[in-house]
Specification:
One of its GO terms (molecular function) is transmembrane transporter activity. It is built from seven helices and ten strands. By secondary structure, the protein is of the alpha/beta class. The protein has a single domain, classed as Rossmann fold (3-Layer(aba) Sandwich). The strands form two sheets. A six-stranded mixed β-sheet has the order 6-7-8-3-9-10, with helices on both faces. It has a four-stranded antiparallel β-sheet with strand order 2-1-4-5, with helices on one face.
Length: about 240
């Protein structure tokens, strides 16, 4: 068991307490074995570890894409385990934004249409969708690419669209899974600069990465090994 830091501070929008997750694939595999972690409001946390260490499982639990077998995950003071599937979906749609390594854009939609997708499934936001997309794409430097399809954009531009889409519902928590993994170093640094700006604007960010140089953009690095929290490394000079 690894418990890491106490997960009880009131300023944490996300708190995991002694979470365990086991998968059954012919035999049981403990993806997470008693991990506790808190994400203070406005913090920037990187998660590192070898393949199979539980990085993506932790992100899925914190993002309400999965629920723990034991332990609790709280978001904004609400226990995710006490919510119905519909309530968890609404929580994901209003308070959490996701950015993935493979962008996950709809190929037949324009950049603006991709950004507005999260808004389609929420009542009361039909008016002003295009304006919202234009504002967000301008924020990430793509104000002149509103009507471009993903295949007309570079990898870095597609990731910027994905970030704008993740911000469509003004989430408090941004989860990123290897967001620079498919990008060259220069383009990756441009994307990381966007994350720096988002944290400066008050977002809480958790990023899964296998690259040390990427992780060092965060305030701290959470190291997972074999489903356990091995170390929380506070980066020098970071708040």
């Amino acid at each position: 068991m690894s418990t890491g830091e106490p997960a009880s501070e009131g300023g944490s929008p996300v708190v995991a307490r002694d979470v365990r997750r086991t998968y059954y694939m012919g035999e049981s595999v403990d993806a997470l074995d008693g991990v506790s972690l808190s994400l203070p409001a406005g913090s920037y946390t990187a998660v590192m570890g070898p393949s199979g260490s539980g990085k993506s499982t932790l992100m899925n639990l914190l993002g309400c894409l999965d629920t723990p077998d034991e332990g609790t995950v709280e978001i904004g003071g609400r226990s995710v385990g006490d919510l119905s599937g519909g309530e968890r979906a609404r929580l994901r749609g209003t308070e959490i934004g996701f950015v993935f390594q493979t962008f996950n854009l709809m190929p037949r939609l324009t950049a603006a249409e991709n950004v507005t997708l999260p808004l389609v499934f929420h009542d009361g936001v039909e008016a002003g969708r295009h304006e919202r997309a234009e504002t967000l794409l301008s924020r990430v430097g793509l104000g002149d690419r509103l009507d471009h399809a993903p295949n007309e954009l570079s990898g870095g531009q597609r990731q910027r669209v994905a970030i704008a889409r993740a911000l469509a519902n003004e989430p408090t928590l941004l989860l990123a899974d290897e967001p620079t993994g498919n990008l060259d170093t220069e383009t990756g640094n441009e994307i990381l600069a966007v994350f720096d700006e988002l944290q400066a604007a008050g977002r809480t960010i958790l990023m899964v990465t296998h690259e040390r140089r990427v992780a060092e953009r965060a305030d701290r690095i959470v190291h997972l090994i074999d489903g356990e929290l091995a170390e929380i490394e506070q980066l020098e000079g970071k708040r």
